[in-house]
Design brief:
- The protein is mainly α and 215 residues long.
- The protein has 2 domains: 115 residues, no CATH class; 72 residues, no CATH class.
- Helix content is 53%, strand content 10%.
- It has a 3-stranded antiparallel beta sheet with strand order 1-2-3, with no helix packed on it.
- The longest helix has 23 residues.
- The chain is extended, with a radius of gyration of 24 Å.
- The chain starts with a helix and ends with a strand.
């Protein structure tokens, strides 16, 4: 038996013994439109803006505004096999992950979609949010912007010739496999450090301009 025949035999045996998929979409997930969190819980939360904001870390106006910005980018076409998840539901899944850090598996059960679908949605929607908001919220400063920032630090904080304030935050993560103490911090947790530079308006209750971030 030559190599070609052996490979063909292996492929045939694998095809015969591999487990057959019992169904295309699990019966529980077929009830997503009736019982999934977006179609039931999220719609109920719209009756209470405080609860809505605690769930998504965005109020309804902010959520809807974000949806109008990224909706066309994250919309998908229906196919002959299944209906696509609507943009509002895709944004809700991504925002729930960003707000809580829950596992993809936990979100997949509550929204009644596959965990691999959750993973794809989080990645796609996160990039769409970045692409749609970066020019407005993190634009490249002009010379006049730099002058205004320096004037802001002088007037508000009496700190001359300052263009930005630097601070860092430990974003808690699960330790990656075989990483040892690489991500271990002095607080006793595992984290990635987010380092950011903001302008003079970065005080509680005020909207600040993010100038630069690095992980």
């Amino acid at each position: 038996m030559n190599n070609v025949q052996r490979n063909a035999l292996i492929a045939l045996l694998y095809y015969r013994i591999r487990p057959r998929r019992r169904f295309w979409v699990h019966q529980i997930r077929r009830l997503r439109v009736n019982n999934g969190d977006y179609h039931r819980l999220v719609q109920e939360l719209r009756l209470d803006d405080d609860l809505f904001q605690r769930y998504f870390r965005l109020n309804q106006a902010e959520f809807d505004d974000l949806l109008t910005r990224v909706g066309p980018r994250i919309a998908r076409l229906n196919t002959s096999f299944r209906e696509a998840i609507i943009p509002a539901e895709r944004l809700a899944i991504c925002q729930r992950y960003l707000a809580t850090g829950d596992s993809f598996m936990t979100i997949s059960f509550s929204y009644r979609v596959a965990s691999c679908t959750v993973a794809g949605i989080v990645g796609d929607v996160s990039w769409a949010i970045w692409d749609c908001l970066v020019e407005e919220f993190m634009p490249v400063p002009t010379k006049q912007d730099w002058r205004d920032m320096a004037e802001g630090f002088l007037q508000r904080w009496n700190f001359p010739n300052c263009l930005g304030s630097i601070d860092g935050k430990h974003v808690v993560i699960q330790a990656p496999p075989n990483s040892g103490s690489l991500y271990h911090n002095y607080k006793g947790t595992f984290s990635i450090v987010l380092l950011a530079v903001v302008d003079a308006d970065s005080i509680p209750g005020h909207r600040c301009r993010w100038l630069w971030t690095e992980q």
